[in-house]
Structures are given as C-alpha cells and as structure tokens.
Model the fold of this input.
Amino acid sequence: LSNGKLPLEASGNIDENTILAVAKTGVDYISTGSITKNIQAIDLSLRFN
Done:
C-alpha cells in the first residue's frame, strides 16, 4: 500500500484468532487491546516502614 515509504499499523478487532492473518498482510505494527481488555484486576499494596 505504501511501497515501504511509511510504516503501516493495523488495529481494531484483532485478537489471538485473527493476528496471524493480519500479520500476513505485511503491516509493520499490530495493536490489540484484547490481551488487557478481559483481565481480572487484583488488589495489591506495598508498604514501607
């Protein structure tokens, strides 16, 4: 698409099921929020004396 003149990024609706197909398109970067979207939070604290 850009003949290598500009880096291309793909994002949106990309997860572990679609990332390989997206990578095969030749884009330079792939962004995904799926690895953090469904994570369960934990309660963590750090105390100093």
